[in-house]
Structures are given as structure tokens and as C-alpha cells.
Amino acid sequence: MLKQWKTKDLDKNVFSLIGDQWMLLTAGTPERCNTMTASWGGLGVLWGANVAACYIRPQRYTYEFVERSGFFTLSFFGEEYRKALTLCGSKSGRDIDKIKECGLTVSASAGNAPYFQEAELVLVCRKLYWQDIDPAHFLDPDLDGRWYPEKDYHRMYIGEIVETLQNQ
Question: 39, 58, 95, 135: which has the fewest C-beta neighbours closer than 10 Å?
Fold first, then answer.
């Protein structure tokens, strides 16, 4: 059961959470949402608020939902959900109902933001800012060629963490 938690009381290794454990980035409404697996992002403090940064390529279906929504959620799962996260990162919500395929249960929190009851940790984020990655700003030119051979640069979103839910 997910319960309210103080964001400052989290004692997780964010590098492991995002880079190793992965997360589902979700936006829309509980009735109509989309989710995608993400392993790029960051957590920290900016503009006097606890924030999360996430990155989405424009061709991803979830991009449309994040663009239209004032909120997005980041849901983190235990290893038993690795297959579900793999599916959500490899299939498009345009083609299949990923949430149904994975057997996940949608709930809603602050701002009617959709998240998943099966998650171990959920960060509900209110969008504050976006910025497209600009290749002219790469100081290491190898980054552009390595990560963007298709020139499909991510859009970065920064969201204030307005609610933290954790299994207890």
C-alpha cells in the first residue's frame, strides 16, 4: 500500500533508482494515460523546490501526454516488474495497451496525475519548465553523434515533486 511520505525523508540512491532500477514516466488522466520506461533523469533541488528532471524524445507517444498535462509521475518498481518495464520501454502505446499488458493498476494523485499502485515509490511532479536539448551546446561533440544519430533531441522537463508515495 502506497502512503504519503516526506520527500526529504527518502533514503534511496537516486543513481541506482533511475539508472539501474528504471522508472515509468506517466502522464495524462487516470482514464486516458500513457507510460514509458525511462533510465535518464535526475532528482535534486532547484528554485527552492524538490524537483525531478526527465527527458523524452519527441517521437515517443508519452511526449504528447506530457505536453498536454500539467503533471507527470515517476513510478519505481521492484525487480519482479523488470519484464513490465522492458515492455513499456520497447512497445508504443499507439500500438498496444501497455498498462493492460503489464497488469498494472492506475490510480490518481495530486493534479489527477496517473500512477501505478504496484510501484514501490511514486513521485508526483507538477511541470515547471521545459527545454529542448540544443546540439550547439554540446561541449563534448561525441555526445551528439553517439546519442543522437537521428537528430531526435530529447525535451527536458523539470517538475516540482508535489507528492511522494512509498510502500511502507
Answer: 95
Q: How far apart are CA 41 and CA 34, in angstroms?
A: 18
Q: Which domains does the chain possess? A: 2-167 (2.30.110.10)
Distance CA 164, CA 19 (A): 19
- Return the C-alpha cell found at 161: 515533486
Task: Give me the half-sphere count of Cα atoms (radius 13 Å) on the Cβ side of residue 159.
Answer: 29
12's grid cell: 534511496
**Which run of H or E residues covers position 4?**
strand 2-5
Cα-to-chain-centroid distance, residue 165: 14
Q: Among all chains, which residue has been given the C-alpha cell 553517439?
A: 146
Q: Which residues pair with 90 in a beta bridge?
A: none
The pLDDT value given to residue 63? 98
Indicate whether this model's pTM tops 0.85. Answer: yes
pLDDT digit string, tens, across residues 97-155: 999 999 999 999 878 999 999 999 999 999 999 999 999 999 999 999 999 999 999 99
Give one DSSP letter per residue of 41-100, joined into a string.
Answer: EEEEEETTEEEEEEEE-TTSHHHHHHHH-SEEEEEE--GGGHHHHHHHHHS-TTTS-HHH
